Amino acid sequence: MADQPQDNAVIEDLKERILAALETVIDPELGIDIVNLGLVYGLNLDENGLCTIDMTLTTMGCPLTDVLTDSIHQAMGKIPEVNEVKVNLVWYPAWDTSKMSRYARIALGIR
């Protein structure tokens, strides 16, 4: 049990690095990254290095799905602990502007 705080610190560091990598994935239409847009709903990294990312899109049928997915795979390739990436597109809860960070709302002029 004495190792638990250190394990938690390692997990938090890895989560921060994964989120930082995902912040490099820019939605080409809006010019804001997918994390600040609130499109990333969840992520998990298992013991085998499989990183599963649950995310949504601003609109169903978004023509940029493949572009975003490819960018996510490239970004995750920079994290040594990630061996494989699986992107799950989810539609619930539906995305709306309330999921955006303050930064994204300011950048897009949304109050």
Keywords:
33% helix; 111 residues; GMP Synthetase, Chain A, domain 3
Q: What is the CATH topology descriptor?
A: GMP Synthetase, Chain A, domain 3
CA radius of gyration: 15 Å
Morphology: globular
Query: What is the helix content?
Result: 25-40%
Helices and strands, in order, run as HEEHEH
Main sheet, how many strands, which sense, barrel?
A: 3 strands, mixed
| Broad structural category | alpha+beta
The total number of structural domains is 1
InterPro entries: Fe-S_Maturation_MIP18, FSCA_dom_sf, MIP18-like
Pfam family, one: FeS_assembly_P
Organism: Latilactobacillus curvatus
Domain MIP18 family-like: 15-87
Structure notes:
The chain is an alpha+beta fold. It has one domain (4-105): 2-Layer Sandwich (GMP Synthetase, Chain A, domain 3). It contains three helices and three strands; from the N terminus they run H-E-E-H-E-H. Strands 1-2-3 form a three-stranded mixed β-sheet, covered by helices on one side. Strand 1 (40-45) and strand 2 form a beta hairpin. The termini are far apart. The relative contact order is 0.19.
